[in-house]
Each structure stands twice: as C-alpha cells, then as structure tokens.
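Q: My labmate handed me this sequence with no annotations at all. I'd like to see what the chain might look like in three dimensions before we decide whether it's worth expressing. Could you predict it?
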Amino acid sequence: MANPFTKPEWDAINAELDSNPQKYGFPKRIAGSALLGSFNVRKLGNASNRDAQTWNFLAKICRQFDLLAVQEIMDDLSGINKLMSLLGPDFGMIISDKTGVFPGDTGLGERLGFIFRWTVVKRGEVVSDISYDRSKVLEILRKYGPEIIKANDEYTLQQTEYEAGIRKSPPSLKMPAFLSFIRQPYCVSFSIHGVPGSNPIQFMAINAHLHFGDYLSDRRQEFDALMEWINARVKDNDKAYYPNFILMGDLNLDYNDPEKDRTNIEKHLKTYNDAHGKEVHVNFPFLDPHKGQQSPYRSNARLNETFDQIGLFFRHVDLPTFEDNENMPINETGPDFGVFNFANLFSKAILGKTILSLNKTPKANFIARFEHKVSDHMPLWLRLPIPE
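A: Here is what I predict for the chain of 388 residues:
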C-alpha cells in the first residue's frame, strides 16, 4: 500500500484549493441554486481506515452539496456515520441495505445512499429498490432461454477445465441477456423548494452502481435495463409519485474513446427522447463538452473515463434539456455542471504539475497514494436554479 498524504501535504492541498477552488471545479454555493451530485467514495466502510485529514477533506466536499448520491457505502456504517458527524445537523442521510451479495454468502456487497441538506431538499414518502419482478424475468427467460443454457454449458465446461488445471484462470460467465441488477439501484423521492408560493422541483432520485465486468455487453445490458425501467415509469406520469427522475451514479459506461463512444451512447439515448416526443426530455449533460472545453469531463482519477453520470428524465420546464448543455452555465444560478478534479488538485499542490503531465509509472505511483484513502472516482455536480 502506498504511503498516504502527510499532514504537511494536506495543508498544501487545502491551501491550494482555498486559493482558487473554481480552478479545480469545486462547486461554489450560490444563493438561488441547488447543487446535486454523485460521488463513488471507494469502500466507505470502517472509520479507522481513513485518517482525520482525509475525513475532513471528504466532509469539505460533501458539505457543498444539497443532494449527494454516494456509492460504495460498506455494510460497516461507522465510516458514513463519521462523515455525517462532521457534516453536522444541517444534513440528513438515507441509505439502502446491502446489495450485490446474498446475506451470508461471500462477496463484496455495498449500500447506496443519499446525503441531503434539510433547508433546501425535502424527502418524500416513497423509498424503494429498483428490480425486475418475477414475471419480467420469466419473460426474458422464455425469450432467451436457449442462449442462456448454451452460455451456462460453456461456462460449466470452462470451470471444469479450470478445476482440473487445464485452464490457468477461472472463467467468467457471459450472459446473453439481462436477468437482474448486480446491485439493485436505490430510488428516493425528493423535492427542491424555493421561496414560499413557488412550485418545487419534485423528482425521484435514482442512485445506481452498475456492473463493471469482463464483458462490455454485460454493462450495456444493465444500463439498458435501467433505462427501460425509468422510461416505462416516466410514461406512468399519472401514477408515479413524482413525474421526473434524476439518475445519479457510477454507471460504468465505456467512455474512453470520446469521439466514438459519445456518438454511440448519444444515438442510443436519443431513442428515449424519440420515444417520448416533446413531452418528456432525456438529458445526460456529461456526455457533452462543457462550454469552452474540447472534450467531456473525466470522472476517474486517471482522467481517462467517465463512468459516473447524471441523467435527467423530466417533464418539468425548469430543468435543462440536452440542447442547453453547450451553453451552460446559462446564468450564475445555473443550470450548470462540472467535476471536482481533486486528482489535479493533489498533483498540483504536491508535485507542482497536473496528473496528465506525469509519465505512466510516476502517475500510477502518485494515484496509488489517494485512490484508496480518498477515492478513485471524483464527484460530479449539477447546479439547478431554485424555483422563484
């Protein structure tokens, strides 16, 4: 394990951030706007696994947000409770039970949670996991039964060869169809309130940490399944608790080739816009370059992927459409979006240069110093104007 940052290094980091927070995309709190975000905090579990300086830095990040979706909360709640104690009474929290592994089985399960500022965001009554029910799973099995049986037979043969020493590595099962989420997405009703008499922005917030496996097809199956679920629920406008949905999470979209991947993903997402017509909008701002940038934001510490995303599915006229993305910020109170690039902050404060200017080995060695203690993902933020 690489050496974590020392106290003098943390002092240099905080001084560099305080000197110019917007340089690194640290979201500014602006009256008249609400900040929503998503942050995969790597293995947020036992509080003793992080030192006081790291906890203070994580709290400094979380304190900026009015609603923050957090992924990789472990079954051990001492870490998230430590974070909440640092944030204080202005913030509330709601989290799921452990998902991703059956109780008692071996494996790394995690919880999904939301941290929210009481004075800006109010929680509604509806809280739920997202899953495909038995009838839907049976429908998939009837449709793809022969392909699933064939895939299982091939996997069984390869596993037998591995156990006999014929194969050097254990096989992976490549599923030809989606059956269930590796971790059930978590859905909570929230509303953002403005001045008395204004109409609040009401939405269902979905926190998701989708599959990251050996096969790209598995990732896209999960993503498509979640899009299908949201798509169908938004169509139930008269039945849904709130008609608008905001997806925030680590979607593990393969996005390391911006020119190619962006075109493919946007083409795919456009089908949802087409399906709804003008009545419902679908917008993933982080697929587009921010105004003045040549390429979209990166959300991982190595600055080569955008696994994390925020997606809007809405009828509310005050939320930004995909046509607004290239012009953000529209005004000071938003809409706007960005990433807090703490990888560059750390590198600049300690090494005097950016992450991407480092050679391969020094870059890997430096990232190893914070990817476990802070995270290997950086927080995304979306600014929305509060209704007037």
